[in-house]
Amino acid sequence: MPKTLCDWSKKELKQKPEKLHALTRNACHYCKKCGRVANTKKALCSAESFSKAMTVVEEVDFAA
Ligand SMILES: [Zn+2]
């Protein structure tokens, strides 16, 4: 079974930024469990589509 983005360690994130970018650019899915995003649901352990979940997207206060 391929490793999901959710399983990546800090070390792997450091080692494979190109792969991370390839998986996360134009992300249209997110992980319900970990909050990670990806452009393929295969890269996430509990994937959900952004388009289904999104209603109103406005600027969000990051700290909120
Ligand atoms: Zn996950």
Keywords:
3 helices, three-stranded antiparallel beta sheet, 12% strand, 28% helix, globular, 64 residues, alpha+beta, binds zinc ion
Summarize the structure.
It is built from three helices and three strands; from the N terminus they run H-H-E-E-E-H. The protein is α+β, with helices and mostly antiparallel strands.
Structure description:
There is one protein chain. With 64 residues, the chain is of the alpha+beta class. The protein has one domain. The chain is built from 3 helices and 3 strands, in the order ααβββα. It has helices at 10-15, 17-24, 50-53; strands spanning 29-31, 37-38, 47-49. The protein has a 3-stranded antiparallel beta sheet. The chain is globular. The termini are far apart. The model has no long low-confidence stretch (mean pLDDT 89). The structure holds zinc ion. The site of zinc ion has 8 residues, from loops.
Secondary-structure content class: alpha+beta
Mean pLDDT: 89
Helix content: 25-40%
Q: Which geometry do the CA atoms define? A: globular
SSE pattern? HHEEEH
> Can you summarize the main beta sheet?
3 strands, antiparallel
End-to-end separation: 37 Å
Record field, number of beta strands:
3
Uncertain spans: none
Amount of beta strand:
5-15%
Ligands bound here? zinc ion
Helical segment tally? 3
Radius of gyration: 13 Å
How many structural domains in the coordinates?
A: 1
Question: Could you give the order of strands across the largest sheet?
Answer: 2-1-3
Write the layout of secondary structure elements.
Layout: H1 10-15, H2 17-24, E1 29-31, E2 37-38, E3 47-49, H3 50-53
Antiparallel strand pairs: 1-2, 1-3
Bound molecules: zinc ion.
